Amino acid sequence: LERAKKVLAGGVSSEFRKYNHPHALFYTHGSGSRIYDADGNEYLDFTLSQGPLILGHSHPRVLSAVQEYSAGGQLFAGQHIRELELAEQLQRLIPSAEIMRFCLDGSEAVQTAFRVARAKTGRPKFLRFEGHYHGWLDNVSWGISAPDATAAGSRNAPAAHAWSAGLPAGARDEFIILPWNDLPLLQSTLAERHGEIAAVITEPVMCNNGCILPQPGFLEGMRALCDTYGIALIFDEVITGFRLSLGGAQQYFNITPDLSVFAKAMASGYPISAIVGKRAWMDQITEGRVVHAGTMNAGNPTIAAAQATLQVLEETQPYERIFRYGQMLMSGLRRAAGRTGHQMTVSGPGPMFHTGFSGQPAIREYRDTLDFDRGLLALFISGMHDRGIRIIGRGLWYISAAHTEADIHLAVDTAEEVLGNMQHNQ
Ligand code: PMP
Fold first, then answer.
1. In the record, which residues are listed under signal peptide (predicted)?
2. ipTM of the shown complex
3. Could you say which of 52, 163, 283, 395 would form a disulfide bridge with 269 (CB–CB 3.0 to 4.6 Å)?
4. Number of the ligand 1 atom closest to the C-alpha atom of 208
């Protein structure tokens, strides 16, 4: 850590700074469901490097595809025949992907979707939801969406805040921000303000503050309202894409957005994202009204990683298992919390889920997550870590195709032990 502080601003991953982990850890490599630190310790990994490693660490098919394509030299956007092949593959897999473009990461693809929506509608603003995260670029860094929201425990309306210094003046005015899962409020807001709104953007499952499913009818209602008012519906599938199903949340929930954004799991973490959508919207790019550039987009090794990842997912269809293991782990954690007298809220669809310490049996929207006891969560996360299990600091777990049933049992047993110790120490 001392060495890192001399060269890396902040010295260590923000996760450790935010959650006050007592140890500074640097990892050397990963394999399957495991990751290894610089001291040679092994960890069972439920972070998957913040989600992308849906096949687990160092999947051999992905590694050999990258190696093979790299040997052919580096070719980037619009130069490599494989870019076309990948687009055809995604068109086949994702229901709304009539046509698309590639970028480097989720944040860039979100901004492209905003541009397209503004260009087509001629309207200036976007409607987004409290607690949702859409990247770290300027405009979206204003809002009620910081993944480490520091808001004090309160169920009152949290104030919009900038979570970075140095943002441009006016960035906060780009957004109208509403609580999620409240269709009547969305309805009345759009009725009144649709003339200024280019797009509604949502995570189809809210994964960045708690892990919250849409209420029945909410996404359907949102779709209908966007149709009524000629507003673009943007699904931010950076987390849900290739995780809930090969066609993302839009396939899982059977709702067709106008534009959507994929990244993370698409290429096992190699830097590529996609903005996909209906021609009627994407024509803004086709016709050259919206510029889409980027020297390093769609490089052939990253395309190779994406093709290999998607091929393995298609061939092996691990989704039934990923859901089953996720749900098995969720119920095991609930049981462990019950036995040790902790009030733990475990929420999410299974392939990803959230654990938080709160008296609330169910969470519906961001404000419900403000009651979580962050101190207890930090104790839990570091207790698990000390026993060789990694979870994302804000309480999010990801399941990969490399996890085994034995991994799930190990995590449940370890959690029970950690929760038991926390109880005795209170
Ligand atoms: N949208 C969502 C829903 C995300 O979870 C993230 C990243 N966690 C992003 C956008 C930004 O993606 P990236 O970090 O690849 O820029």
1. none
2. 0.99
3. 52
4. 5
